[in-house]
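Quarterly update from the structural biology core.
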Amino acid sequence: MEFRLEHAVEILSRTPETLNRLLRDLPDSWITGNEGPDTWSAFDIMGHLVHGEETDWVPRVKIILEHGESRAFEPFDRFAQFEKSKGKSLMDLLDEFDSLRKGNLSLLERMTITPAQLALRGMHPELGSVTLSQLLATWVAHDLSHVAQATRVLCKQYSEAVGPWKQYLPILVVGDKS
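Predicted structure, tokenized:
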């Protein structure tokens, strides 16, 4: 599928509500469960998404538009949520994510990015030269990836409880860490 900004915004604008409907008011056993050692819970995923809204997507869009490849992106700490989310509830993270996302999409809209600007390049500290359209497409794929991850983590909590039906549930069989 060819990247189109308006299609990207359709997904990006839905992610907070999708996660809110999936996770809000669940008991701790659901939101803190993970898939085993060195895996993330739904709480961890939400902290990661909040951190990304604060430090990753829109700041990098601005760098591309203002500096191109002459200024590399700041490296993104994929594990910052473990420290930054301390003392917060899942509801805090869901609300913060929703507010930050609305603000970021509003900023993106005010930038009135043109098709020509989507071809502009920035410098990723690990990947090298990337286009603005690649960054924005990655933002969408990143959202969808973490929605799938949150769903998978919840599903894995019943990995043993489903008994023999597990064989019919690919989400429980593929990459099974239980």
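The first strand starts at residue 121 and ends at 124.
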